[in-house]
Amino acid sequence: MYRELERNKNKRGRYSWRLADEMARERKERLPGNRSTPEWIKRKALDLIRDDWSPKQVSGHLKKHENIDISHETIYKWIRKDKQDGGELYKHCRHKLKHRKRPVDSTTNIPNRTSIRERPEDADGSRFGDFEMDTIIGPNYSEAILTITERKTNYLLIRKLPEGRNSGEIAKEVFKTLLPFKDILKTITTDNGSEFAAHELITEGLEVPVYFTDPYCSWQKGAIENGNKLIRQYIPKRALFKDY
User: Measured in whole angstroms, how far is the alpha carbon of residue 76 from the centre of its chain?
Assistant: First the structure.
């Protein structure tokens, strides 16, 4: 009771239940998570989602250019609620609110692989020349695309793979794609897909080490993962690559 009187008394030192109720409401509004977002901000954010922006892009843009502080988690919450209500906002997300299934551990199929744990600490995306690579697979595993991105700039290179996931042919394609950058290449990082089993050919041709992430740790090559999501936004999973 003493704390209630002290917190809610007026300037004259008197207690008023009306003032106490008003001050309690103000305190509740100031608590994190209790502030409702104005509808105009929500509309602005979701309009950008409809233009195929990611929630993180929307959050960063609004904070930088319009001084609107809204988290990407909140935007995802709105998108999930819209999906529950039968809306289609989720279709503008790069992963359609789905999570990829864990692949089979194929590290044993890659001879002489070098773990990402041995990669130099300065290959952290702060310098130019550290690349990540991956493949995007078409329907029924009939087609494949090679994707390579430079970590500092997110410069993205995309190549169709006529021979699919053949590791020897992929090594040749990586060599041709990165040859113009040979003088500044420092590292290449990829996952444990068997299509990169011929990594030693890449190292021999480009004179650059290839490092492999830990199993099921796609976040260790986040730049190319984000690049693939962007590509998938315009080349859906069931699409035939020959049509592009």
Answer: 13
